């Protein structure tokens, strides 16, 4: 009897899952498996008891229940992926092994090794389930990868997007008669022993069905005004689909297809829909950059930044902690960092502002911020997180110019004019006036709030001086 092992990774869904679809089509029974890769993971599991672990636990629990409803049991294993899959194939005599690809450096290496080692034992195939097109499919005329988003996205749209997403399997499919040995989901230890995560998860619903509910709500309620309202952190104008995309409870192909159908029904929403789809494009660009420039997970794409004079760790450690804890003395910065700690998420404009403050006003290396975000975000996506931090720091592809330094006070006054966002996350300032809440040091009211940790004007001048050290250096090839 033909049997397929279906290895679930960042594709925790039944619909539009090419590996699962092929297994059901080709084989008489399937063995779904998820492997906790304790060695050499690439950002799927950032660190012990992190926010993304918690999200993963709940998404896996949802997938486990949906597979049971279809007649299959999700097997949990822990260890090196190659060793786990070899063992599972030997135990079950599986004739096929299918999975959906990852595009990070470790994932690519792992895929190659598995194909080399297991192709003699069974049919081995991998598929694209997480991108609109493969990162090697879009190149400049000279065969080199794009470094500018606009040109990349234009070419990608010209080449066209893939066919319609695959439907969810309509009828139950056969699991193996005698399930192989499996850990339990709780054995993986993704939930912390001290349950700090319960408050965070009150803000979220996980799983495949929830992801589509989030998309529908966004399209019907927010997308018509998305372009104008998405910059205002107090407004619920963003989709908040990023963690669902990261863990694959929804695919970009499903989002594209549904958004285009919505636009056909609501032509007046074209501006909002196209703006939203460009954000999906930025995610594609992030994975594209990670694939073509794998060293950027820890190194700046712009090699001039190798010589950038960041402050030394022993000098900035106290400042880094104040930033992490939302105690900088700048209300918008602190609101964003506290939102991150409480919910595992931060509004995108605020992400740019807090990142600019860390790398430019405080001169702390972007890697420190990327690491903190990776540990605290439920959407801790290696590709998007790396690209975003390098963009703000000025050292990545299509980066913000070195002289662009977000002023947190001006940004606050522009995008949170009434202080609604600040009042929610920095409650000690809620009684200040709309004018003084952005600069509490100008208020006569006594509040238990830290003093500003740096002078914005002086720190801007200092940053520009240090950028001057590298701006005339030879640009990267």
Short description:
This protein is mainly α and 477 residues long. It has helices spanning 18-26, 51-70, 81-92, 105-118, 149-159, 197-201, 208-222, 226-229, 242-247, 252-265, 270-292, 313-324, 331-343, 348-361, 366-376, 382-393, 408-415, 420-425, 456-470, and strands at residues 3-8, 29-36, 75-78, 96-100, 123-127.
Q: Can you describe what's shown?
A:
- With 477 residues, the chain is mainly alpha-helical.
- Helices cover 47% and strands 6% of the residues.
- The longest helix has 23 residues, at 270-292.
- It is globular.
List the helices and strands and how they pair.
Blueprint: E1 3-8, H1 18-26, E2 29-36, H2 51-70, E3 75-78, H3 81-92, E4 96-100, H4 105-118, E5 123-127, H5 149-159, H6 197-201, H7 208-222, H8 226-229, H9 242-247, H10 252-265, H11 270-292, H12 313-324, H13 331-343, H14 348-361, H15 366-376, H16 382-393, H17 408-415, H18 420-425, H19 456-470
Parallel strand pairs: 1-2, 1-4, 2-3, 4-5
């Amino acid at each position: 009897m033909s049997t397929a092992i279906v290895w679930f990774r960042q594709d925790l869904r039944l619909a539009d899952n090419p590996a699962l679809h092929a297994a059901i089509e080709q084989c008489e029974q399937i063995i779904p498996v998820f492997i906790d890769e304790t060695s050499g993971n690439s950002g799927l599991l950032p660190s012990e008891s992190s926010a993304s672990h918690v999200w993963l636990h709940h998404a896996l629990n949802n997938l486990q229940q949906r597979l049971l409803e279809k007649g299959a049991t999700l097997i949990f294993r822990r260890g090196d992926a190659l060793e786990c899959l070899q063992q599972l194939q030997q135990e079950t005599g599986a004739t096929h092994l299918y999975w959906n690809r990852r595009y990070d450096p470790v994932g690519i290496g792992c895929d190659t090794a598995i194909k080399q080692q297991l192709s003699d034992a069974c049919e081995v195939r991998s598929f694209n389930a997480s991108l609109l097109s493969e990162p090697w499919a879009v190149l400049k005329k000279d065969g080199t990868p794009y470094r500018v988003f606009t040109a990349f996205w234009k070419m990608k749209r010209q080449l066209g997007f893939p066919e319609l997403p695959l439907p969810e399997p309509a009828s139950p499919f056969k699991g193996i008669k005698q399930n192989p040995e499996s850990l339990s989901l709780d054995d993986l230890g993704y939930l912390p022993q001290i349950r700090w995560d319960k408050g965070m998860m009150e803000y979220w619903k996980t799983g495949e069905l929830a992801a589509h509910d989030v998309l529908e709500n966004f399209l019907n309620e927010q997308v018509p005004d998305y372009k104008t309202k998405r910059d205002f952190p107090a407004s619920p104008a963003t989709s908040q689909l990023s963690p669902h995309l990261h863990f694959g409870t929804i695919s970009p192909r499903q989002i594209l297809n549904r958004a285009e159908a919505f636009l056909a029904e609501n032509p007046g929403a074209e501006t909002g829909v196209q703006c939203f789809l460009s954000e999906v494009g930025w995610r594609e660009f992030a994975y594209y950059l990670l694939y073509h420039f794998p060293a950027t997970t820890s190194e700046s794409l712009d090699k001039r930044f190798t010589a950038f004079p960041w402050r030394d760790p022993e000098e900035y450690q106290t400042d880094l902690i104040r930033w992490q804890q939302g105690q900088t003395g700048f209300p918008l910065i602190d609101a964003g960092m506290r939102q991150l700690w409480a919910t595992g998420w931060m509004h995108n404009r605020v992400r740019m502002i807090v990142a600019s403050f860390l790398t430019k006003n405080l001169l702390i290396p972007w890697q420190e911020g990327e690491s903190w975000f990776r540990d605290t975000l439920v959407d801790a996506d290696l590709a998007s997180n790396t690209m975003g931090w390098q963009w703000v720091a000025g050292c990545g592809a299509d980066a913000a110019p070195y002289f662009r330094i977000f002023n947190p006070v001006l940004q606050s006054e522009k995008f949170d004019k009434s202080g609604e966002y600040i009042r929610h996350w920095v409650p000690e300032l809620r009684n200040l006036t709309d004018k003084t809440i952005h600069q509490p040091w100008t208020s006569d009211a006594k509040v238990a709030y830290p003093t500003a940790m740096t002078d914005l004007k002086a720190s801007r001048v200092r940053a520009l001086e240090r950028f001057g050290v590298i701006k005339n250096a030879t640009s990267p090839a």
